[in-house]
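Minutes, methods subgroup
Present: GH (chair), OT, SY

1. OT presented the first of two proteins processed in the latest run. Sequence and structure tokens recorded below as shown on screen.
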Amino acid sequence: MRVAVLSDIHGVLPALEAVLAEPDVAAADLIVLTGDVAAGPQPVETLDLLISLGRRALWVNGNADRELVEVAAGKRCEYAISQWAGERLRADQVELLAALPARQVLDLGMLGTTLFVHATPRADDEMILVDSTLARWAEVLGDVTADSVVLGNTHMPFVRLVDRRLVVNPGSVGMPYGTAGAHWALLDSASGAVTLRRTPFDTRAAADRLVAESGFEEIEQWVAEYVTTTYSDSEALTVFARSEGR
């Protein structure tokens, strides 16, 4: 089995379309979506495209997905883009997001039992980073028995070992930190190979399209921050490390 892992799409439809057009994604047996798919400038269209994948898609709930459901129920969100997106979802889309599981587990051959979550196995918004200490990793993974763990949330791709356990973050399709392009990962159960992939796309054309099609009041500022520019991994790690008390 070959599994494409897409995380943190954040409603950036042009980036998602670029990844889905990749031959290795089109040919994958399964596409795992590890959360935060729609909280962004084109939430309705992004969800419709993902739903069209049918049974090839395996979904995991993310904190931004949860926030969209809360907004649809009348709760306010601190993020303007999520507030706007949640107010635009159709009832069937809200129902889909509300029913998403917190985790999925697959037997992936040479990769062993593989756990897919959004942030960590115990919370959908907890920060864990490539340079987190082994003690911190042991705390976060707790009694997880899976051979491999795949997670997202921080928008930065990495592969590392944690006390013999393989941990993979595919990075973000729609809001990457580190390097530009839509980031994803390919898992091969036969060989045990994990490949971090990056799909380049025309960010200027994507930004123009989002400005023309989105309707979000602050779309020009949003695309300037997240589409046509990219935060460095060092900037993101510095900010996120504070969540660990560093």
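2. SY then presented the second protein from the same run.
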Amino acid sequence: MARLFNAYVIADWSANAKPKTGADSIWIGVLKRDVRFQFGFESFNPATRAEAETRLNAILDDLTRRGERTLLGFDFPLGFPRGTGAALKLKDESWSGLWAFLASNVVDKADNTNNRFAVANKMNRLMTGEARPFWGSPPKDVQTWLQSTKPEHGTDVPPVLRHAEVAAKGSKSIWQIFGNGTVGSQALVGIPAVDRMKAARGEGFRVWPFETGFKTLTEADLAGVDVVAAEVYPSMVKPEPLPGEVKDQSQVRTLCQHFARLDEAGKLAAAFGPGKDFPADAVVDVTHEEGWVLGA
């Protein structure tokens, strides 16, 4: 069985409010073939999200010019728990409507200054008129509808966890936007970045599982597709650090190599679909709003 992809790119994102490199910053891993058709790995550690977006665009442009299809993984949710669009009273309640909402509300400047806490505050106001479901603001960013402490979530809002978080043990809720290991802030600033990359590439850029279907992918499914963007969870694969590597750098390399090995063995295609006995109603949630973690 032929590979689905020719290159593997993993982005370990960050919601830092200031430029930062090293541990706990943005790392981009790239596994691609060299002039001898041998796979080689390189990593990048841009100090800001703007630099990271520029770097990713350059990487994707180069691979596309070479005629190589890329698996592009991001370590933050690409969708929100089912019912979020409805709770926000969006005309388009799907993932696409939520992406458009974030793209029009999130301000993320070249120096990493961003308004993610203000956006979470606004979303709480629209969904509940209370300081929930988002929570976890630093004390200096506490606002009327966003507090530092965890609230009672309630049953009148979208669930705490997506189906994917239930499956990927140990992953945190998107509603927590501050603290170690949280992904909420990364999603708020990350989704608009992916949206811009997608807009620049049109039909050649597909977001899994929303635009590909939640199913085993075939070569025919990806005809004319240059990039498939997917959500990944670095902790699913134990990193294998090399001397001098920081944890994040090791994780993006290990994930690139992990997906390349699965692809070589003909096992990656099935990872894009649900497991055996996956509930039909959950498939609808995953493809319409929530998304999924590749390999969960």
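Chair's summary of item 2: The two ends are 22 Å apart (CA to CA).
Next meeting: continue with the remaining queue.
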